[in-house]
Recover the amino acids of this structure.
């Protein structure tokens, strides 16, 4: 039995040494150390041995078992290490190579301008309101003192879906809806940014779709001086404290009196140049005191309440603020143009 156990040990160690897969090691363990393995078969024959030989053979069998187990463990660790090194070699990253640049997006220039205007008026206590872009004729025109057949409607020749439904031509319907929702007995202080649509000439300064922001303030004892102070603060915040404003008489059906606001030209400082057509001023928005008829249709008593409204185009403001020469650049999605304003 001594020779048989020594032969088993030699044979098992050779197989372990030559093994290059975990499955082969598992087979060696079952073949030599399992319940039906070679060592177990030898031990079953110990009954034939003399009593004095049994301890010697038993100790030898245990030593053979321990030797094979230690060899299996060592070989398993070696295979695991080799497999890990192979995997690391296959997945090696060359950290000396330059990394791929990460491109960060940014707000569209019009979004940035709108948010800047919103921040200003929110700071003055205004709320931001929104309304539908597909509007009814009543809120788009009639509630704003533009009854059917009014000649001023021709200035906003529009995209009609039916005789009574159209794409809104301005954000003024949001003002009418807000006053109506307030029930005619609460102060209103709001701005309403959004897209508007007009069948207009598609040239460098006009587009069939553009953005607009209108503001409304209705309360008791609201005066024209309040409007001028608000607009002057707006101009200083958007264009700098060195910019001055002037108000010129104008006409809008929903305000009376109505004015156009100009800001002093930044290029010439008001002296006159080609940009301002040698006037020293650049038109920027329209405004006025809310027409009593508009207040009345919204449920407000014009003998008690008064207010002012103003409307501006963020497109035009962006053009003036950043020297952009064509309104169509905002909508052509040219990344070379848009990325200039990510930090703006």
């Amino acid at each position: 039995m001594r020779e048989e156990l020594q032969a088993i040990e030699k044979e098992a160690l050779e197989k372990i040494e030559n093994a290059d897969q975990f499955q082969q090691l598992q087979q060696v363990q079952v073949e030599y150390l399992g319940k039906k393995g070679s060592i177990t078969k030898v031990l079953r024959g110990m009954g034939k041995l003399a009593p004095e030989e049994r301890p010697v053979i038993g100790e030898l069998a245990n030593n053979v078992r321990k030797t094979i187990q230690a060899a299996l463990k060592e070989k398993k660790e070696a295979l695991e290490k080799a497999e890990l090194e192979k995997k690391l070699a296959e997945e090696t990253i060359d950290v000396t190579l330059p990394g791929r640049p990460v491109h960060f997006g940014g707000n569209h220039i019009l979004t940035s301008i709108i948010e800047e205007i919103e921040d200003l008026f929110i700071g003055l206590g205004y709320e931001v309101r929104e309304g539908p872009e597909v509007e009814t004729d009543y809120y788009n025109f009639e509630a704003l003192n533009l009854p059917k057949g009014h000649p001023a409607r021709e200035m906003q020749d529009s995209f009609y879906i039916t005789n009574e439904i159209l794409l809104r031509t301005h954000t003024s319907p949001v003002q009418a809806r807000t006053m109506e929702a307030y029930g005619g007995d609460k102060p209103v202080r709001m701005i309403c940014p959004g897209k508007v649509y007009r069948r207009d000439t598609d040239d460098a300064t006009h587009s069939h779709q553009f953005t607009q922001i209108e503001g409304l303030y209705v309360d008791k004892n609201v005066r024209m001086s309040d409007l001028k102070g608000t607009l002057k603060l707006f101009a200083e915040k958007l264009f700098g404290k060195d910019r001055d404003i002037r108000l010129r008489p104008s006409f809008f059906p929903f305000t009376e009196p109505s004015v156009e606001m100009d800001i002093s030209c930044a290029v010439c400082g008001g002296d006159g140049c080609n940009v301002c057509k040698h006037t020293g001023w650049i038109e920027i928005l329209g405004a006025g005191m809310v027409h009593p008829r508009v207040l009345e249709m919204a449920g407000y008593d014009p003998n008690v309440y008064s207010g002012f409204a103003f409307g501006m185009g963020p497109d035009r403001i962006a053009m003036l603020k950043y020297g952009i020469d064509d309104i169509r650049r905002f909508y052509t999605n040219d990344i070379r143009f848009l990325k200039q304003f990510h930090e703006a």
